Amino acid sequence: MQWADVFTRREYSEIVCDSLAYCQQEKNLTLYAWCIMTNHMHLICSSPTLPDIIRDFKKYTSKKLIKSIQTNLQESRKGWLLWLFKYAGEASAKNEDYKFWQTGYHPVLLHNNMLMEQKLNYLHNNPVTAGFVEEPEHWHYSSAKDYSGNVGRLSITFIE
User: What domain of life does the UniProt record list for this protein's source (predicted)?
Assistant: First the structure.
């Protein structure tokens, strides 16, 4: 499956943020760090029911994002994006109409402080490494702003 730069549009990133906030409030998701890049996202999070939350999050956001792409009059890539997600859906084992997210998720157990710090730095520096911003806290869709002492887009639980 190809990666598409969907999250270059704020409205699509906002759908993801709103859904994460809902999972925090209603599904017992603890969010420690996050970053939405143009074509993927990273989370450091926990929950007793994490696989279920991720499944529900992906199912909901997939439908909402596809609908948003379909109805967005300013979306110049509409035909290509919908073709790409339709092609991925047809190729999937579930034979879905559209497949937005990759199958599964890639949990990594952060079992010590060194590993936690390494992943936190990687996640927050992703936009810097990609050349989008000079400082991690300048990326709007990231918890780096929170870790720099300001208030970011989503509430987080700090890693200490």
Answer: Bacteria
Query: Distance between CA atoms of 93 and 103, rounded to whole angstroms?
Result: 10
The pTM of this model reads: 0.93
Per the structure, how many domains does the chain have? 1
Give pLDDT tens digits for 1-37. 568 999 999 999 999 999 999 999 999 999 999 999 9
Structure tokens at 99: 């497949």
Q: Would 17 be classed as within a structural domain?
A: yes
152 domain-assigned: no
Query: pLDDT for 137-151, tens place per residue?
Result: 999 999 999 999 999
Residue ranges making up the domain that contains 48: 6-147
